[in-house]
From TrEMBL:
SUPFAM superfamilies: GatB/YqeY motif, Glutamine synthetase/guanido kinase
Any GO BP: glutaminyl-tRNAGln biosynthesis via transamidation
Keyword Nucleotide-binding included in the entry's annotation: yes
Superkingdom, taxonomy of origin: Bacteria
The species this protein was found in: Microbacterium oleivorans
Biased composition (Basic and acidic residues): 276-285
Segments of this protein annotated with the region Disordered: 275-297
Keywords in alphabetical order: ATP-binding, Ligase, Nucleotide-binding, Protein biosynthesis, Transferase
The name this protein goes by in its record: Aspartyl/glutamyl-tRNA(Asn/Gln) amidotransferase subunit B
Ranges of residues in domain Asn/Gln amidotransferase: 356-502
Statement: the UniProt record of this protein carries the keyword Nucleotide-binding: yes
Enzyme Commission designation: 6.3.5.-
């Protein structure tokens, strides 16, 4: 595949104005699916279900099977609409979206079209440095997810070059809410940052509502990023592309930046933009063409004849409104105050999309400082090396347990990093990794004194320097002891014992 020509980002923004739009799909964590009694794989209880074991006749599109609306999914959808500042429709209707779905047995998706459950809202998002921007929401509508195709035999995992494909219907029928923004203007050079911050804000909202785990790496939260450019001074919007199912906030940011650079190069060269879906490639940092983007007429929407309209009562809407959590901007300001972080420290957490992880780690018993240190430091480093999100590697509870072992003196920071790697590798809890690998700090003074004596015997001149009051010379002995103990010693205790042996305590 030939590489796209890219224009320098700053140059692209001199010539063109970016206009953004996002379609974020949120999988709801109800116990059962949107229209059937089958278990919901987006619920943590069903994550590890074998393929094609969470299915019902409706999910398979079997003749005579009829959908039944999941009441909890409707309540979750209304709560999300309210949290997005939307109006809730007194009556909304499901529709059939007709399309060739190889992973939906009935060959259409039950969605909402011209009568969504929620409409006309907005979300305030906070950018680096404390700046805010309001993202206008057009609608939030209920629908069902499609199944999952696994393409076998190719080198890329995509259908191109694959020998055959496997279909898993577990995800078919999972309850979804699709949040669609209006065109977003005025983002300018911060367009990629806005994309990342918006998805992070949606993730924070749905997690605080408790309606989704919002794990992007698991597909609980997926973003389609729409990008178009128009020449400076032009009123007419440019042709947009839609980069599909980007599965991390970092990738959303990169995909928007890439599309701006790619489209600018085409337009500056006299070309035209094709209205199409595009696929994001994490390994190369590029997008590639998908299919020409269909318009609504192509889907032949019509009202779903097997389902009645959804008509929530005013009392239900009032009840759900009263239960809403804080808005993301208020939530962030409160966390910053509660944690006692400086602006820079808080931005490190927020920019990494780690607010929920740090908050949960603190709730599990860690201090704010230690929670921030682990998530923005070693865990993020390991996640970047693996090309995944930090939350995909380890749970907040495990991080808090790891820090407790450090606080208790069982582990040094260096040993704790080794334990973390073991936890991520699936070797068990932090304590189980410590026990299995024998990584606990040696607390037996007798063993430490023996190692110190060996080190002093090998460096008699160092002992003399310490005895003469040059206590900084103890560093050479500490290093030798730590090496002999394979890092499993408390350096501060080793120093104390060295000075005692040298008569300098």
């Amino acid at each position: 595949m030939a590489k796209d020509a890219l224009m320098d980002f700053d140059k692209a923004l001199e010539l063109f104005e970016p206009v953004l739009g996002f379609e974020v799909h949120v999988e709801l964590n109800t116990q059962t699916k949107m229209f059937s009694s089958a278990g919901n794989p987006a619920n943590s209880a069903n994550h590890d279900a074998a393929p094609n074991t969470l299915v019902a006749p409706v999910d398979m599109g079997l003749p005579g099977s009829l959908p039944v609306v999941n009441e909890t999914a409707v309540r979750y959808s209304i709560s999300l609409g309210l949290a997005l500042g939307c109006s809730i429709a007194p009556s909304s209707r499901f529709a059939r979206k007709n399309y060739f779905y190889p992973d939906l047995g009935k060959n259409y998706q039950i969605s909402q079209y011209d009568e969504p459950i929620a409409f006309e809202g907005s979300v305030e998002i906070e950018l680096e440095g404390g700046d805010t921007i309001v993202v206008p929401i057009e609608r939030a509508h209920m629908e069902e997810d499609a199944g999952k195709l696994t393409h076998m035999g190719g080198s890329t995992g995509r259908i191109q070059g694959a020998e055959y494909s496997l279909v898993d219907y577990n995800r078919a029928g999972v309850p979804l809410v699709e949040i669609v923004t209006k065109p977003i203007f005025g983002t300018e050079h911060r367009a990629p940052e806005v994309a990342k911050a918006y998805v992070a804000a949606i993730r924070d909202i749905v997690r605080s509502l408790g309606i989704s785990e919002a794990r992007m790496e698991r597909g609980n939260l997926r973003c389609d990023a729409n990008v178009s450019l128009r020449p400076r001074g032009q009123e007419k919007l440019g042709t947009r592309t839609e980069t599909k199912n980007v599965n991390s906030m970092r990738s959303v940011e990169r995909a928007v930046r890439y599309e701006i650079q790619r489209q600018a190069a085409i337009l500056a060269g006299g070309g035209t933009i094709t209205q199409e879906t595009r696929h994001w490639h994490e390994d190369t940092g590029r997008t590639s063409p998908g299919r020409p983007k269909s318009d609504a007429d192509d889907y032949r929407y019509f009202p779903e004849p097997d389902l009645l309209p959804v008509e929530p009562s005013e009392e239900l809407i009032a009840e759900l409104r009263a239960g809403l959590p804080e808005a993301p901007s208020v939530y962030r300001r409160r966390l910053k105050t509660d944690w006692g972080f400086t602006d820079l420290e808080f931005q490190d957490v927020a920019n990494g999309g780690l607010l929920a992880e740090v908050e949960a780690t603190i709730a599990a018993g860690a201090t704010p400082a230690s929670a921030r240190k682990w998530w923005t430091g070693e865990i993020t480093r390991l996640a970047n090396a693996q090309g995944t999100e930090p939350a995909a590697l380890v749970t907040p509870e495990s991080v808090a347990e790891l820090q407790k072992l450090v606080d208790a003196g069982t582990l040094t920071d260096k040993l704790a990093r080794q334990v973390l790697e073991g936890v991520i590798a699936g070797e068990g809890s932090p304590q189980e990794v410590v026990d299995a690998r024998g990584l606990a700090v040696v607390s037996d003074d007798g063993a430490l004194i023996a190692a110190i004596d060996d080190a002093l015997a090998a460096q008699p001149d160092v002992l003399a320097k310490i005895q003469d009051g040059k206590v900084q010379a103890a560093g050479a002995v500490i290093g030798a002891v730590m090496k002999a103990m394979k890092g499993q010693a408390d350096a501060a205790r080793v120093r104390e014992l060295i000075l005692e042996r040298a008569g300098q305590s």
